[in-house]
Amino acid sequence: MKAFVRGLIARANLEMPKIQRKWAGKESAGFGGVTSPPPPPEKGLENLTVSDVLLTKDTDDGAGKVDTLISCRTNDTVFDAVKNMAKHNIGSLVVLRPGDQQCIAGIVTERDYMKKIIGAGRSSKITKVGEVMTDESKLISVSSGTNIIKAMQLMSGSL
Questions:
Q1: C-alpha to C-alpha distance for 134 and 129, rounded to whole angstroms
Q2: At a CB cut-off of 8 Å and minimum separation 6, what does 45 contact?
Q3: If DSSP codes are grouped into helix, strand and coil, which group holds residue 119?
Q4: Which helix or strand (DSSP H or E) is residue 52 part of?
Q5: Lowest-pLDDT range, 41-45, 62-66, 93-97?
Q6: Cβ-count burial of 134 within 10 angstroms (0-12 exposed, 13-18 middle, 19+ buried)?
Q7: Are 108 and 90 in contact (CB under 8 A)?
Q8: Is the sign of the CA dihedral 2, 159, 90, 49 positive or negative?
Q9: 9, 28, 65, 100: which has the highest count of C-beta atoms within 10 A?
Q10: Element counts in the chain: helices (H) and strands (E)
Q11: Mean pLDDT throughout 43-60?
């Protein structure tokens, strides 16, 4: 959790200098007072939304932004879920119920794997995701427009 929050803050801080550098030195065009447009407003954490953070996630292959939900099913093996996390360089997957509908069943994380598979001496190749995931009834969710500070407070339990 702390690493996730630190990552969000680091991402927000890394994005701001890019905006500042883009406009640096462009105060005046040198034509009798004609000036460039003012720099865009900086987007500090107080103005950052969950959507803004999610849109900064690049694909590992350099092909651009992630635009699809990376998920697994309750009846997938934990082994396959962990391989999927490693492939996409992520620490959790949304777990969907089996079938055609996109019904969320819960979430499976690296921590679930470490504690419930490795720590318990179970085999990831025969254990199903549904046996180790956190059920959706225990999840706290927010909309994409939620302020990132509020989301971090919810995740850390300080709200």
A1: 10
A2: 8, 9, 12, 148, 149
A3: coil
A4: helix 50-54
A5: 62-66
A6: middle
A7: no
A8: negative
A9: 9
A10: 6, 6
A11: 76
Is residue 125 packed enough to be buried (19+ CB in 10 Å), middle (13-18) or exposed (0-12)?
exposed
Convert 17-36 to b/e letters by CB count within 10 Å (16 or more is b).
Answer: eeeeeeeeeeeeeeeeeeee
State how far the Cα of 50 lies from the Cα of 43, in Å rounded to an integer.
Answer: 13
Q: Hey, what are 44's tokens?
A: 């500090």
Selected residue with higher pLDDT from 101 and 127: 127
136: amino acid identity, one letter: E
Burial of 73 (0-12, 13-18, 19+ CB in 10 A): middle
The answer to whether residues 127 and 117 touch, using CB atoms and an 8 Å cutoff, is: yes
